[in-house]
Amino acid sequence: MKADAECKEISDTAFYCIYVDAMLGWLARMLRILFGAEVFYSSSIGDSQLLKTNCLVVTRDEELFRQRRGPTILLKTDDHVKWIAVFLRLGMRPFEKTRCPECGGELIKISCGEAEAAVGHAIQSAECWRCVNCGKYYWVGSHWRRLRQLVREAEEVRAECLGTG
Ligand SMILES: [Zn+2]
Question: Start and end of every Mut7-C RNAse domain (predicted)?
Answer without folding.
Answer: 19-150
